[in-house]
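Box 3.1 — From sequence to structure: ATP-dependent HslUV protease ATP-binding subunit HslU
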Amino acid sequence: MNDNLTPKAIVAALDAHIIGQRDAKRAVAVALRNRWRRQKLSPELRDEVTPKNILMIGPTGCGKTEISRRLAKLADAPFVKVEATKFTEVGYVGRDVEQIARDLVEEAIRLEKERRRLSVKDKAEAAAMDRLLDALTGKGSSQATREAFRQRFSDGHLDATEIEIEVEQAPTAAFEIPGAPQMINLSEMMKQFGGGQQLKRRKLPVRAAWDKLVEEEADKRLDQDDVTRTALADAEANGIVFLDEIDKIAVSDVRGGSVSREGVQRDLLPLIEGTTVATKYGPMKTDHILFIASGAFHVAKPSDLLPELQGRLPIRVELKGLTEADFIAILSDTKASLPAQYQALIATEGVEVSFTEDGIAAVARIAAEVNGQVENIGARRLQTVMEKLLEEVSFDAEDRSGESLVVDGAYVDKQLASIARNTDLSRFVL
Ligand SMILES: Nc1ncnc2c1ncn2[C@@H]1O[C@H](COP(=O)(O)OP(=O)(O)OP(=O)(O)O)[C@@H](O)[C@H]1O
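Predicted structure (token representation):
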């Protein structure tokens, strides 16, 4: 883990993307640093220190998921988001919550492969190119033909062409034999019994085929056992699970599905307290996973959760609903803000879009108004408003190359005011 990720540095990095929510940022920063601190302890003490899981309380669209996801990215940690209500749906049984741990391992494997692919990139690309040219020109084609196609591919002339390639079959689902220490993976088993890897012909656009072949060739060059070993350890020590809508499985809330909400809490408990889950890569201990639970808690209160679960979520942070002023800051002061994204996208067509201060203020005002009148969906409203605002130029950009568009207060009013004033209409459009 990166030594430089001190709580202050983490908060500063989060500040670049998320406006306000100081308490939540500080809490996740400390939780992450505690993991680094734990690694420095003696082995005996290290096992004793369990993560202090966090309960984020705040309305929808105020940054709960965003803070957690950014934190995971910063730490290069495996991250999964799960809706707690998913486990109240018909057809779910208690053991299904263990899937959370399995998903975390899959994510850790994806990350670990991504880290290692770089080291085998050159060789993998060379082998992938051979296979791609075989598919394009036929095996044994002349060097000159191959070179001509290689050049056309590099120049992007073949991107839209479809070709048929042989790729490895996606692994079949693993299943669990009761009492067995780990899941059984059918395709692995067949490989071991001499069945070899199953190949399948697939028709793909050349660009997608290229990506698939490079991935396959890179994977061949990675030590899969070592990847899974490292990934499993990474998921155990650094995994972060974001459990959304935890308030909806609290008991006083009358909504919910067929499986009792208290039952779901009981199923989740061992996972959060620390248990061993069978995965197809071997047993995984959940003791040191960091859980960030979140909910609006409009109806239920944290005290409506099972006492054991409350105890396992000792750090409580409240996130505030976002105001019009926050919206202005989100639009103007965050890294890769929405206006900057639209600007860059439309610039690719040769149209220069710029936003004035009063243009931004008008977008923020309309977003706040619609949130107040229709439904408060927090900063998500900025996305729908911006999309509508720039719909016209996004569609026409190809014919307007060389033009520039100034998005000021007047332009925003012209595009949006009539919609925003009509609550029925904005319910559908914004
Ligand atoms: N404080 C904030 N600063 C900047 N952007 C924000 C902020 N809050 C939310 N956003 C943006 O709004 C969108 C939704 O936010 P997020 O997913 O974090 O919501 P949430 O609080 O987790 O809500 P829910 O409980 O419904 O999942 C994201 O695209 C995020 O970038």
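Summary of the box: Residues 7-111+230-318 form a domain with the Rossmann fold fold (CATH 3.40.50.300).
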